Amino acid sequence: MSLISYLTTIRFDFGALAGLKDDLRELGIKAPLIVADAGIARVGLVDRLKELLPGGQNVPVFTDTPPNPTEAAVLAALELYRSNGCDGLIAIGGGSPIDLAKGVALLSSHEGPLEQYAAILGGIPKINSAVAPLIAIPTTAGTGSEVGRAALITLKDGRKLGFISPHLIPKRAVCDPELTMGLPPMLTAATGMDAITHCIETFLSPRFNPPAEAIALDGLVRALNNIERAVAQGSDREARREMLMAALEGGLTFQKGLGAVHALSHPLGGLKQVSLHHGTLNAVLLPYVLEFNGSHSEAKYETIRQRLGLEVGASLADYVRGLNARLDMPSTLAEMGVPQDCFAAIAKSAVEDHSSATNPRPASEADYRTILEAAYEGASPRPNG
Ligand SMILES: [Zn+2]
């Protein structure tokens, strides 16, 4: 049976942020906690948000969100939420503040510890509708977390786990392309490649959900037509709007499940010895996973080729490699500084990751190892991508 759900209310356009007061009123939030990070505060976005809120200067703000959200940071924000008598959250930023706010929304209404709600530990049915209301305001065009049902949080013991529930979907997404205009080229490229990977992986997932596949393909074409423009010319309003829509569409299709790229990039993103950007990891891994999946996805690969105007049988992996090169993305894990001695542990975590189950070709620990080694050196494991 298919479970198809669309999904939450989205305010989308230049100037969408101005409706924030209405969003709060409609959701019945009287005492919000703002969740951001230091970078967002530095560029003045927290102040701008406060100006839009009733009694704004007194609204509590949590800005200590790490690049990869941690359980400790969730607990610190929860403390602030409780001590201020908050009844809802506004998260502004990339995926990290939004995911962190989802963790706070969960634990403000569900007893700890956090670990018991992790998807791979059987936590999905334990999350109910008591989750506090969250308004998500993305400032990057990539994660799709503003409409996503998952939060990726690194636990105290170092495991980066997915917390998944329809109740974690923000009650409102406010998508204002204006907020992405200042994103520097490298981050525009890396977050854009995350959106592209979401569209490709959800499209290839074997779950039967044709509406989601149509959205994923639309997002993919939109992103591929605009990512280079947005990177080259950050002030291009149309390219920024299209990239934010593509990222949103990638997020709207998460219900199909992701695949091997994310099964690998989740544990790699949890490594303590090196801080790796999620979108950059996906950009580097994507060609190798496309090659691995080729034998199990031929009809869908042909659909993608047609939508992109590529020749019959053209290598999608090579297409992505070319795009990565034009975007100045690294081409190998070695270039990113990923330590090779972690591969055994990463391959083990990848098999256990919640995204692995919906990869179109079942992937074993040994398969993940092969993909990692190929992506480390830049060699092709198979020629049929
Ligand atoms: Zn992602």
Automatic annotation (TrEMBL):
Assigned protein family: Belongs to the iron-containing alcohol dehydrogenase family.
Catalytic activity: a primary alcohol + NAD(+) = an aldehyde + NADH + H(+)
InterPro entries named in the record: ADH_Fe/GldA, ADH_Fe_C, ADH_Fe_CS, Alcohol_dehydrogenase_Fe
Domain of life: Bacteria
Positions of the Fe-containing alcohol dehydrogenase-like C-terminal domain: 188-376
Recorded GO MF terms: alcohol dehydrogenase (NAD+) activity; metal ion binding
Pfam families to which the protein is assigned, alphabetical: ADH_Fe_C, Fe-ADH
Gene3D superfamilies on file: 3.40.50.1970, Dehydroquinate synthase-like - alpha domain
Protein name listed in UniProt: Iron-containing alcohol dehydrogenase
